[in-house]
Q: What sequence folds into this?
């Protein structure tokens, strides 16, 4: 053991210290790769994984919750409490409130027996507090404090009457009577919590209660909504995770490159060690140990860095979760052993796998051959033909995988297809570089002089390392390009969809923070009064409820389809007639569903949806499937009259106001403001709503860009490290150029040309590969994960920016190696052994 | 039983377009405590023959028997063990590892063989080549002669039975070369190793017991000097 450690230290670790910059670059590349994986995992856990439905605040563990679509009739509680069971039924109102109408949406819970929850501070005298609330300690409010809370479209003043237990609790609790009044739900309940005696068989009691419930009303264990939300977030988290692996994959190329360089450089040492009695196994494990050294040190650094990056990532992921899925307040970042082990384990595994090839190559070299230089480069050339065949096989396999369906709703074969394509292209990179240099040498000489020619020759002569380096950069560029095309296409599709969808002149919704599962309401009289304003042609009322459908969160809504103008067929999937669908929708129990909903629940036109409404299971025939990009939860939309038949609450969630031709928009807007006098309602003009929607869209994809930027940074660091190694290895050649009359500036130009050529090849191949990958992202991975139809769009400006940025970064990465080259003494270098 | 027996050994290198006969029909024996010089011009096959003798490479025909073991039937693992315990190498360009100090270079074979007390054994050999005082120096801080003495110490540290030296004085001036040759002769006398030294210098070869002169991959002449 001591011998092995001594050998490891002397032959592996110590030489790395002689090249601190290159070693640091490789370590940093691994660290960044690992840190991104850890950051995304930790942030994902905090924002989505450890997600606890805020509406399940203050429910007891082991209890059961009774819920129904659109809420419950208060009389149900009266029936339940008279049952001869030793059960305790607690009614609940569940809503959201915003302090002073701004900031985060806080859970606002109405309870009957607040005293049961317990408070950590004494109650204020009841007579002083007509509107008393109890606040979670996470809000940092104090007893007696007066707070103004926006609930639905009205601000209400409350006095803090007590502080709730629970360290991070940010809920607000009010007496259920008060809560019913301020949420406009007098006579209604959102849920009933059933407390079951601890020693009893919970399932027996659940069945007993279920028998007493009207059809469509469910009794479920506490935490069901949290679990449903987590299930809904699974695809989002998976895709984010896979994106976070890109930097690690790019890092794997660099580990391969580092170890391959190490093998080439140490050929003499391999020969000496073999001559002195070292076996193949020792050589093999030695180089694996070098990779493990990078992996362990890099991972250790990556874990620390990941913890720091997670702070920023959690905010970005939280925004996306809230915009597309569900209200959430990220949990504190918990440095779990699993996340750390996963990050470090992945870093180690990827590094070892990447190092396998060079390590086996080193072990295979016969001791006598080990003294001969250049064999590695020779191998890269003579293996070009088998590599091309391997690439063809991989391309075919990738195409096959891209056509396979999702596994357990996850696009595993889509990911595999992407990976196979990346490896296939990496396999043909040596051939591409050789061909490029061969056919471009005259052009290089004419355009950039002899330095460019020498640079090209140098790339072709050291294919063993330049091809891996280029492959790493190609991977980073291709992934960035593919994501840019996907996001650009998605954005363009959303813009077109908004053009079709947003025809009204003004849109109104209750103030406060928007989230996919929050549908605060406005008084119905607002719509009625606006409808009568001069210049207004029509008002479209829309009401939405967050519901659960087949174990997944969804949105049930009612709209006034008869008033929708210009029934555009582009809103519906191909082959569906919008006018006919919308005309029929109001005539009975019919529904249209959004595309994500249809994909998620495998619903087709003509299918029946079974919804528990108004004490019975109702069937709604699906007339059409429409495009929708507002939320991934999925919509079931009924005609407003149909919805009101079953859920007779006339309050509305959104209003669309259409003006008469020639009406003065500013005049109507001020008239609307007068109608809203005193109510907290946002009024968006058509253009401002579109701007806000696109801003939300851009915010949603910030995390994606951040991940791509890290992958490119890792690849560019690899370029710098590899060029530095090439400079050190070619010092005699560079010195010879100086002896032959080359100026320092010419040597610098040569190295910058090499980097420039790597950047050029990587950008060209990366753009081509990225375009193919984008097709898989859009038509396979996105479709299987989220179910959105995205029209392919080529964001030329964005792609040019990416290409120019990568090119500039690659050339700049050569500056330090060039400086190192110029600082070498040519006389000393030329006389080295 | 001779320490080394080479029987009708031949070596042919094949490339894509041609084949090169490096050695042809070589036969000789070497006893323990015997000093054999291989002479001949550059490219005559001296180094290739040394590689065969040191079981670094296989003959394409004939066989090499080291310490009674026919090497052509052995696995790579067995060859490594045989080389580790029986053979010491000295190279023209010293082949020391530059990141290591003199004593660490000498310790290397002991560490590879998982032996104990590596430092004391390495220092003992450095003392023998009169280099103990420079044991802590990095290799590039040593002169050529000093580096070759360290290389000799490294070759002897495992107490091999066969010592192979490929142009050990080729990179040294005359005076330093004589010191190195004296050390090699001493190792034969004091440790009883069998020594084969490849050299293109006929003068250096005269310190050997026998001289095997090679030409175009064949033995051209065998001479006994004493």
A:
């Amino acid at each position: 053991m001591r011998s092995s450690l001594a050998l490891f230290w002397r032959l592996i670790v110590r030489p790395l210290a002689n090249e601190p910059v290159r070693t640091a670059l490789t370590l940093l590349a691994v660290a960044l790769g690992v840190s991104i994986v850890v950051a995304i995992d930790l942030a994902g856990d905090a924002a989505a994984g450890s997600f606890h439905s805020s509406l399940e605040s203050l429910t007891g563990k082991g209890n059961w919750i009774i819920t129904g679509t659109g809420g419950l009739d208060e009389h149900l509680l009266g029936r339940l409490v008279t049952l001869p069971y030793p059960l305790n039924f607690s009614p609940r109102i569940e809503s959201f409130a915003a302090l002073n109408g701004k900031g985060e949406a806080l859970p606002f819970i109405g309870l009957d027996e607040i005293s049961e929850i317990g408070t950590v501070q004494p109650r204020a005298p009841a007579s002083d507090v007509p509107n008393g609330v109890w606040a979670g300690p996470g809000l940092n409010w104090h007893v007696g404090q007066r707070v103004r809370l926006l609930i639905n479209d009205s601000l209400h003043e409350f006095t803090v009457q007590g502080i709730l237990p629970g360290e991070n609790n940010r809920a607000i609790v009010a007496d259920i009577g008060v809560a019913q009044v301020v949420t406009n739900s007098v006579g209604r309940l959102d849920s009933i919590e059933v407390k079951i005696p601890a020693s009893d068989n919970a399932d027996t009691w659940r069945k007993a209660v279920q028998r007493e419930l009207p059809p469509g009303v469910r009794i479920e264990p506490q935490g069901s909504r949290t679990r449903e939300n987590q299930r809904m977030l699974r695809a989002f988290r998976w895709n984010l995770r896979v994106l976070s692996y890109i930097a690690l994959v790019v890092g794997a190329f660099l580990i391969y490159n580092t170890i391959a360089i190490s093998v080439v450089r140490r050929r003499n040492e391999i020969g000496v060690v073999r001559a002195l009695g070292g076996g193949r196994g020792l050589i093999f494990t030695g180089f694996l140990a070098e990779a493990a050294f990078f992996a362990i040190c890099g991972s250790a650094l990556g874990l620390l860095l990941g913890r720091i990056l997670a702070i920023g990532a959690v905010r970005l992921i939280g925004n996306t979760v809230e915009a597309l899925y569900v209200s959430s307040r990220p949990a504190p970042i918990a440095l779990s052993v699993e996340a750390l082990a996963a990050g470090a384990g992945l870093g180690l595994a990827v590094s070892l796998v990447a190092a396998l090839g060079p390590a086996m190559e080193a072990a295979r070299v016969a001791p006598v051959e080990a003294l001969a230089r250049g064999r590695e480069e020779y191998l890269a050339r003579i293996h070009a033909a088998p590599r091309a065949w391997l690439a063809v096989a991989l391309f075919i396999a990738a195409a096959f995988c891209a056509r396979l369906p999702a596994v357990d709703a996850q696009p595993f074969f889509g990911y595999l297809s992407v990976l196979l394509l990346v490896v296939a292209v990496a396999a043909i990179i040596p051939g591409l570089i050789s061909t490029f240099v061969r056919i471009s040498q005259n052009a290089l000489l004419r355009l950039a002089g002899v330095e460019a020619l020498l640079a090209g020759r140098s790339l072709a002569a050291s294919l063993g390392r330049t091809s891996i380096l280029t492959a790493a950069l190609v991977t980073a560029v291709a992934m960035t390009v593919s994501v840019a095309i996907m996001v650009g296409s998605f954005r363009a599709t959303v813009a077109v969809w908004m053009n079709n969808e947003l025809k009204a002149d003004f849109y109104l919704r209750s103030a406060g923070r928007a989230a996919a599962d929050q549908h605060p309401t406005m008084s119905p009289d607002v719509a009625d009064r606006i409808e009568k304003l001069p210049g207004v042609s029509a008002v479209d009322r829309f009401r939405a409820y967050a519901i659960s459908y087949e174990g997944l969160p969804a949105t049930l809504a009612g709209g006034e389809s008869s008033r929708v103008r210009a029934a555009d067929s582009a809103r519906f999937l191909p082959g569906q007639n919008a006018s006919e669908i919308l005309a029929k929708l109001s005539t009975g129990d019919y529904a249209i569903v959004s595309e994500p909903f249809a994909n998620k629940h495998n619903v087709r036109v003509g299918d029946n949806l079974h919804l528990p409404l108004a004490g019975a299971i109702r069937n709604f025939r699906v007339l059409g499937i429409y495009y929708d990009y507002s939320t991934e939860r999925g919509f079931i939309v009924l005609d407003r009259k149909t919805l009101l038949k079953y859920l007779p609450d006339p309050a509305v969630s959104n209003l669309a106001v259409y003006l008469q031709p020639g009406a003065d928009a500013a005049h109507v807007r001020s008239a609307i403001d007068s109608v809203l006098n005193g109510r907290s309602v946002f009024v968006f003009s058509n253009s401002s709503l579109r701007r806000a929607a696109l801003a939300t869209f851009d915010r949603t994809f910030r995390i994606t860009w951040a991940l791509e930027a890290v992958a490119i940074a890792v690849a560019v660091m690899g370029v710098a490290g590899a060029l530095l190694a090439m400079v050190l290895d070619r010092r005699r050649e560079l010195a010879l150029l100086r002896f032959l009359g080359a100026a320092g500036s010419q040597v610098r130009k040569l190295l910058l040309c090499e980097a420039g050529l790597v950047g050029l090849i990587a950008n060209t191949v990366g753009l081509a590969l990225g375009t193919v990958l984008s097709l898989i992202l859009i038509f396979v991975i996105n479709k299987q994960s989220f179910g959105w139809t995205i029209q392919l769009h080529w964001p030329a400006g964005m792609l040019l920016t990416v290409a120019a940025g990568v090119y500039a970064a690659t050339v700049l990465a050569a500056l330090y190696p060039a400086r190192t080259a110029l600082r070498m003494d040519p006389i000393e270098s030329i006389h080295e052994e | 039983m001779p320490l080394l027996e080479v029987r009708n050994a031949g070596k042919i290198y094949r490339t894509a377009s041609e084949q090169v006969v490096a050695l042809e029909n070589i036969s000789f024996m070497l006893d323990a405590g015997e000093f054999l010089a291989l002479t001949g011009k550059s490219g005559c096959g001296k180094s290739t023959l040394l590689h065969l003798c040191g079981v670094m490479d296989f003959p394409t025909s004939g066989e090499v028997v080291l310490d009674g073991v026919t090497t052509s039937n052995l696995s790579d693992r067995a060859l490594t063990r045989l080389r580790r315990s029986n053979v010491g190498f000295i190279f023209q360009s010293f082949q020391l590892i530059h990141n290591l100090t003199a004593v660490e270079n000498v310790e290397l074979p002991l560490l590879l063989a998982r032996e104990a007390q590596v430092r004391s054994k390495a220092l003992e050999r450095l003392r023998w080549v009169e280099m103990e005082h420079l044991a802590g120096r990095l290799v590039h801080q040593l002169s050529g002669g000093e580096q070759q003495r360290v290389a000799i110490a490294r070759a002897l540290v495992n107490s091999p039975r066969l010592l192979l030296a490929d142009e050990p004085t080729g990179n040294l001036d005359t005076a330093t070369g004589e010191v190195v040759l004296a050390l090699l002769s001493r190792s034969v006398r004091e440790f009883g190793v069998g020594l084969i030294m490849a050299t293109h210098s006929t003068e250096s070869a005269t310190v050997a017991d026998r001289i095997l002169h090679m030409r175009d991959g064949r033995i051209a002449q065998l001479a006994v000097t004493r």
Summary: The CA atoms of residues 128 and 153 of chain B lie 8 Å apart.
